[in-house]
Amino acid sequence: MATWVSGESRRKRVRVLLFLISFYLMPLIPFSCSAAEMPISRHKLEVQNHLKRLNKPAVKSIKSPDGDIIDCVHASNQPAFDHPSLKNHTIQMRPSFHPEGLFDKNKATTKSEQSSNSITQLWHFSGRCPEGTIPIRRTTKDDILRASSVERFGMKKHTTIPQPHSVNPAAINPGGHEHAIAYVKGDKYYGTKATINLWKPNTQQPNEFSLSQLWVVEDSSSQDVNTIEAGWQVLPYFYGDNNTRLFIYWTSDSYQSTGCYNLVCSGFVQTNNQIALGGSLSPVSAYSGSQYDITILVWKVKTNVSIYLRDPTDGKWWMQLNDSVLGYWPSSLFSYLADSASMIEWGGEVTNTESFGQHTSTQMGSGHFPQEGNGKASYFRNIQVIDGSNNLKAPNGISTLAMYATCYNILSGNNSDWGNYFYYGGPGRNPNCL
Ligand SMILES: *[C@@H]1O[C@H](CO)[C@@H](O)[C@H](O)[C@H]1NC(C)=O
Ligand SMILES: *[C@@H]1O[C@H](CO)[C@@H](O)[C@H](O)[C@H]1NC(C)=O
Ligand SMILES: *[C@@H]1O[C@H](CO)[C@@H](O)[C@H](O)[C@H]1NC(C)=O
Ligand SMILES: *[C@@H]1O[C@H](CO)[C@@H](O)[C@H](O)[C@H]1NC(C)=O
Asked: What span, in angstroms and rounded, lies between the C-alpha atoms of 434 and 432?
C-alpha cells in the first residue's frame, strides 16, 4: 500500500492493472475492487474480515427478543481454538474436581428446585442450542463500528483493576474509572465464589459503563498483570443497548494486547450449550421489590502432583454460573496466573467522563448507597475463596476500598446466612459528589 501512493506513474499502472483485473474477474469476485478504494473502504474490509473471523458458521441461529442473534456453533469450532496455544487442544467437557463450600450444605437437592437455579436469558424464549454446540452472541457490523478501533474491539481501554495498595488517586483512577470494592491479598488463591444481585443501572453518557464483577488477579508484575474476571455489566458502546449482560474477561499482559470480553477473542473454552456470554440476564432486582441474583464460581483445579511431574499447561480455571458449568480458561493463556492468584477483588466499577465538567449521574449497582441495606442496595454475599487444599472458605481479613465514597460507597459485614457480604454502589452525581 505504501508504494501504491508513492508515485503518480506507478499509481496509474496499478490502476490500469486493477481495472483489467476487476474487469475480467468482476463477475467471479464481485467485491474485489472495494479493497483498492480509499481508506474508508479498507476500513470496511477490515471490519468485514474481523466479522468473518469472529462469527463462526452456525448450525442454527436464534433471534432474541432483545435484538441479539445467537449462533449455535459446534463446540469444536468455537473461537478459542484459533488461539495459537490451543491448536491441538482437546476440549474437556467436565471439570475433574468441584470445590464445595460453607453454603452448599442447605443446597436444594430436588429436581424442581435445581431447575429454578438455572439461568434464564432472553433468547431462551425463541429457542435453544442443540447438544454439541455453544451459543455465541453474534457480533454485528455496528458493534465493531462503535469501537475505537477494529484491533481493540472487545478489549478494555485501560488497566482497570482496582489498585488497593496505591495511594495516588491518578494511579487508581485511570481514565475516570471509579470503584467500590472489597479485596483480599497476601495469600495464594485458587478461585472464589460469590452471589451478586442483578440491577440495571443507568449510564448517563453512551461511552460510560457500570459493572459488577469479581477479579481473580496475579499482579506480581505490574507490566503483566494477569486477570480472570466475571460478572454483569451495562456497556452501551459495546452491546448497543442498556441491558444487563453476563460477561467474562481475561488478560495476561495488563490489558495491553491479550484478552477480551466474552468470546470476541480466542481464549475461553465454552462447554455449556445454554448460556450465551454477553447475553442479557433477566429479570433484574427492583428497588424495594423482588431481588434476583446469580452465583459465580471460578476455580482452578490444583493438582497435588509434584511440581516436577506436573505439566504447567494442564491446569484450567473453570467457571460456573448458578448450577451450570460454563467452561474454562486454559492455564496456557496466562503467565503468572498459570498457578494461582495473589489477590481477589469483588465489587462495582463505573466510568465517569465528567461531561459538562461535572461528575456524571451514572449509577453503580442499584444506584443507591450501601446504607440503605437489603432490598435497596446492591450486594455481594456468601463471599468465599478457594485455598491451597481446594476448599472454599471464608476469606481472611476482607478490606474495602471506595475511591469516591460520596459518589459510590461500600459497607461490609458478616452473619450466618450471608457469610461475608457487602453492600456497595451509589447514584454518582449528588450534592456531595459534584
Ligand atoms: C500441534 O501438533 C503438531 C503435530 O503433532 C505439532 O507440530 C505442533 O507443534 C502442535 N502445536 C502446539 C501449539 O502444540
Ligand atoms: C440463580 O439461582 C438462584 C437460586 O440460587 C435463583 O434465584 C436465580 O433466579 C438464578 N439466577 C438466574 C439468573 O436464573
Ligand atoms: C440508554 O440509556 C440512555 C440514557 O442513559 C438513553 O439515552 C438511550 O436511549 C438508552 N438506549 C436504549 C437502547 O434504550
Ligand atoms: C465478622 O464481623 C466482625 C465484626 O462485626 C469481625 O470482628 C469478624 O472478624 C468478622 N468475621 C469474619 C469471618 O470476617
From this structure: 6
Please state the rounded mean pLDDT for residues 5-17.
43
* Residue showing cell 443446597: 107
Does some domain include residue 37?
Answer: no
Residue 68 burial by CB count (10 A; 0-12/13-18/19+): exposed, middle or buried?
buried
Q: Nearest ligand to the C-alpha of residue 395?
A: 4
Parent domain of 236: 42-425
With the most atoms of ligand 2 within 8 angstroms of its CB, the residue from 112, 114, 116 to mutate is: 116
Provide the pLDDT for residue 254.
85
Q: Whole-model pTM?
A: 0.86
Domain presence at residue 34: no
Distance in angstroms (rounded) separating the CA atoms of residues 168 and 122: 42
d(CA 230, CA 243): 16
Domain count, the chain: 1
- The answer to whether position 310 is within a domain reads yes
**Helix, strand and coil in the chain, % to nearest 5:** 20, 30, 50
How far is Cα 80 from Cα 84, in angstroms, rounded to an integer?
9
Residue ID of nearest Cα to ligand 4 atom 12 = 414
pLDDT 10s digits, 295-320:
999 999 766 544 444 444 468 999 99
The 10s digit of each residue's pLDDT in 340-375 is 999 999 999 999 999 889 999 999 999 999 999 999
Residues 361, 401: contact at Cβ < 8 Å?
no
Ligand 3: which residues within 6 Å by Cβ? Answer: 202-204, 236, 241-242
Query: What are the residue numbers of the active site?
Result: 229, 349
74 or 8, higher pLDDT: 74
What average pLDDT does the structure give for the chain? 84
